Amino acid sequence: MSGRVLIAPDKFKGSLSASEVAEAVAGGVRRVRPAADIRCLPVADGGEGTVQAAVACGWRRVPVLVGGPLGAPLHTEFAIDGDTALVELASASGLQQLPAGTSAPLTSSSAGTGELIRAALDAGARTVVLGVGGSACTDGGAGMLGALGAGVLDASGRVLPPGGGSLSDVSTVELAGLDPRLADTTVILASDVDNPLLGPRGAARVYGPQKGASPEDVQALQAGLGSWSDAVSRAGGRDTADSAGAGAAGGVGYAALAVLGATQRPGVDVVLELVRFRDALDGARLVVTGEGAVDEQTVHGKAPAGVARCARESGVPVVAVAGQCSLPRARLSEAGFDAAYVLAELEQDPQRCLRDAARLLDRLGAALAHDWLPEAEGVTEVLAADS
């Protein structure tokens, strides 16, 4: 049986990027089947690593200096292909951009994400894909809109301090100053979060504690987001506070839906389209995907599940590689995976798994090649999208 081996993993968080995972697995496959036709196609789900996946597929990286979650200068980037730009919130306003050991649930801002969007418009983008996930902020997207020209003012007409902790003081939102190019720009909110902005499943109550918010902080953020949505509605924004996805990224989803006119789509579906995954799947004999932990969250909208779904629809076997896997075999099969290869089966020490992930993934690549690829093959070209 001939055909390509398509290696399309997400990152192993805290250890390796998606490109590094793909190359490590490919190295193991090549050791066992040197003539195998391999293509590495890193993927993501709209969160951290999405821009890297696009760049590995040939998109152009555009460096930008923005303000981080607490306003400190931050070197980051977006990706662009033609007039479509991919903006990753996590790279500007993400938890990983805070100083080590710091949590700032009341003062972290999404302003840097707005600066990235503005830079994308400067580069000629007319479609902006906004990938959200891993945010440090719960500011309802006020910082993002402020960076795009909106006024967020208190009763005295002063600009509010950054962060969700000040939103209870919002009195007026001025949208007339928004960058006029936004009127002719299509915005796609790439997110799998279906939470509304407010209430028991809202941004503050569900995600605030993950960002270091105390119970008192959560109450303050919840009240502030309520005031914020009222002010946006008075300014003419769409009534989307109850919409699925409004609670994404601390309410950045709300601002994108209510003010930027965004359309929400599942993040993994958007990314797989952007990297032309279905084109790469044509002619494949085996797909390898995975992420650091394959668990119930994986099957609910994470990148490996999207890869597995597409592969199954095309009748191509798909195996997962993971640091650890908590899904039983039957659940793996339901999600579209034919098998899983796990670092923890080679190394029981979690710290060594993190430290030696590339070496262990090489071994998993060799194991899956032995199991899934017949030994006799013709010599074919080795391809690497992320070279």
TrEMBL record:
<dbReference type="InterPro" id="IPR036129">
    <property type="entry name" value="Glycerate_kinase_sf"/>
</dbReference>
<dbReference type="Pfam" id="PF02595">
    <property type="entry name" value="Gly_kinase"/>
</dbReference>
<dbReference type="InterPro" id="IPR004381">
    <property type="entry name" value="Glycerate_kinase"/>
</dbReference>
<keyword id="KW-0808">Transferase</keyword>
<dbReference type="InterPro" id="IPR018197">
    <property type="entry name" value="Glycerate_kinase_RE-like"/>
</dbReference>
<dbReference type="GO" id="GO:0031388">
    <property type="term" value="P:organic acid phosphorylation"/>
</dbReference>
<protein>
    <submittedName>
        <fullName>Glycerate kinase</fullName>
        <ecNumber>2.7.1.-</ecNumber>
    </submittedName>
</protein>
<dbReference type="GO" id="GO:0008887">
    <property type="term" value="F:glycerate kinase activity"/>
</dbReference>
<keyword id="KW-0418">Kinase</keyword>
<comment type="similarity">
    <text>Belongs to the glycerate kinase type-1 family.</text>
</comment>
<dbReference type="InterPro" id="IPR018193">
    <property type="entry name" value="Glyc_kinase_flavodox-like_fold"/>
</dbReference>
